[in-house]
Amino acid sequence: MTRFGIEEEFLLVDRSTLVPLAMADGTRERLAPEGGGRILPEFLTSQFECVTDPLSSMTDAAAQLRNLRAALAAHAAPLDAVIAASGTPFNTTGRATISASPHYDRVSAQLGAIARGHEVNGLHVHVEVADAEERVRALNRLRGWLPVLLALTGNSPFAEGAATGFASWRSILIRRLPATWTPPWFHDLTDYEGQVDRLIALSAIPERSSLSWAARLSDRFPTVESRVCDAQLSIDDTLFAAALTRAIVVADDGPASAAPVEQIDAGLWVAARHGMAATITDPTTGETTDAWAATHRLLEVVRHALEQLGDAEFVTAHIDRLRREGTGAERQLRAHAHDGLRGLRRLHLAGSDTGEFTGDFAAEPATEPAAGSTEDSATRSAEEE
């Protein structure tokens, strides 16, 4: 069974305003979740990164993700804070603090003023591929499907307290970085390494780990790493993205898209703007089609891989669920339209619990108990495990 790993990024935000909260040095390093996985510092002092162990099944992944999210929620509760499972925060002070480390110092020096506004959370999926040349071929397969993956997982519709009109505002912010969005098509491993080395020689990136392509080869592990997805609202959303990504990587009879970078980049922009209402390119035919049709074409291509991995039923059911309830961006917009910040807060709290999303905002109470009350404490305990 092909192993995979998941990296989820989250922001600690104020419970009332949903504005990111900076954490003191050493705070994140002290979090030690039970049941596997790690919680690590990220680029900003308001961010966490949750990293699973190498896993073989979505069942094991679900257990680790649940424990990691529950540990974050338990940390946030006494701070009167919430863990935001969104690609960008709803609002911000514009005074983000960068974590202290030699690596982040180099990145910050490289990015200048961009670094101060780089409040973005992604979902990264690593898929293990033992042979280095096969990793390059898998990367070539994955690149053509990046717009479809982004359309399905856009989850950052807000910035500075207002709707942006984009399903994935995170993707637009990331576009400002050097060596980002679509990777080139590579002939082989030598070609891949040569192109990355040239970017370093140009000082476009300080080191290999700063490469911001939406898919790349890991510099530390024998994996293909997808970085196109926003952080996801629920555990099921995350597992869906991981299962679909793994299937693309292992489906060695799937097409390797040699489409020009600018064509796939255009698809990523449209997917970031319109989500599942986007018109994108089907990498198997080169023709434009709607995102839902491209999704079903992707399912046809990876069906055998999904069945071998035991993920076919889950992936199919989740696509049906996305049709009914919407992507993360659509759910966030609906929650905010229904009940403002309280609606968004409940959505994020639900993501720290079971990861399940009901889609029924009408069932939510009209008011919330005061913070610190008995009712509020009981609600938090039930919501945040």
Average pLDDT rating:
86
Helix and strand string, N-terminal first?
EEEHEHEHHEEHEHEEEHHEEHHHH
Tally of strands: 13
The CATH class turns out to be Alpha Beta
Q: Could you name the ranges where pLDDT drops below 50 across 5 or more consecutive residues?
A: 354-385
The backbone outline, from C-alpha atoms, is: globular
What topology does this entry show?
Layout: E1 4-14, E2 38-41, E3 47-51, H1 58-76, E4 81-84, H2 102-111, E5 122-128, H3 132-144, H4 146-153, E6 158-159, E7 162-163, H5 169-174, E8 180-181, H6 189-201, E9 212-213, E10 215-217, E11 223-230, H7 235-250, H8 261-274, E12 279-281, E13 288-290, H9 291-309, H10 312-325, H11 328-351, H12 374-384
Parallel strand pairs: 8-9
Antiparallel strand pairs: 1-3, 1-4, 1-5, 2-3, 5-11, 6-7, 10-11, 12-13
Description:
The protein has 385 residues and is of the alpha+beta class. The model is unreliable at 354-385 (pLDDT under 50). Strands 1, 2, 3, 4, 5, 10 and 11 form a seven-stranded antiparallel sheet that branches. A two-stranded antiparallel ribbon has the order 6-7. A two-stranded parallel sheet has the order 8-9. The protein has helices spanning 58-76, 102-111, 132-144, 146-153, 169-174, 189-201, 235-250, 261-274, 291-309, 312-325, 328-351, 374-384; strands at residues 4-14, 38-41, 47-51, 81-84, 122-128, 158-159, 162-163, 180-181, 212-213, 215-217, 223-230, 279-281, 288-290. Helix 1 (58-76) packs antiparallel against helix 7. A hairpin with a 2-residue loop joins strand 6 (158-159) and strand 7 (162-163). It is globular. The protein has one domain (4-352): Creatine Kinase, Chain A, domain 2. Its EC number is 6.3.2.2. Residues 354-385 are annotated as: Disordered. It catalyses: L-cysteine + L-glutamate + ATP = gamma-L-glutamyl-L-cysteine + ADP + phosphate + H(+).
